[in-house]
Specification:
Length: 287
Amino acid sequence: MSAAGLSALSGKFVKVSSPEPHVALVELSRKPVNAFSEEFWNEYGHVFDKISQEPDVRVVILASALPKLFSAGIDLNSMGALNKYEKEPARRALQMKPFISAFQNSISATERCPYPVIVAIHGVALGLSIDIASACDIRYAASDTMFSIKEVDIGLAADIGTLARLPKIAGNHSLVHELAYTARSFSAEEAEKMGLVSKVVHGGRDEVVRAALETAKAIAAKSPIAVVGTKHLLLHSRDHTVDENLDYTALWNAALLQTADVPEAAKAAKAKERAVFTSLGKPHGKL
């Protein structure tokens, strides 16, 4: 799809562009602070699910369009929607569960996306920001970023992905527990130390997005079959034993090694030229 075609996937709060071939840039843009309402998070999931259907995309960058912050988290006004449910506790719980599950599903859209998603974080990144970042493949933070797992300060346990994913991402479980229990702010440097982000970029929004774009261009030049397969197998590895993943990988590659990308890569390497890979085919069916 052309850059103009990708832009057509934009919504009211989520803007899509293509700064480089095969690279989609998704920007959060709900002023003043990118607070997520139900409309916003539904649109977020819908946009990523649509990008997942685009065969010319090979990598996605997620960033904020606002110059001073990534996101202040959930829009507390959206919590008022919970008043529409039954007052009887058991019935209320059964009605609320699908609401929470749908919210989780929207934020998990980056993990569902077959293409690697690089999140470029800057400024304030509270609450839901960490749920969002945890569901991405590569996480960069500007040096001005200040994080907080804020949910305990509003009386709830983080329920959209932070507590499910962050312990599997971070190397310091003690620090994960401390940050989740206290909601204290932590810097980009501390986020890198714990393993939440892999790179701290000096500066703010423009600098971290630029760094993400450089990595995206490198990924986009690789075989899309190899990259999509690598993401799929890494996610499988996270949730399965070593033996299960090895067996699954053998089955996966028994099929995918038949790709034309393997001889193309070998030919390019022998000629000391850059390989040229065709795009993935358009999937059939609708989301």
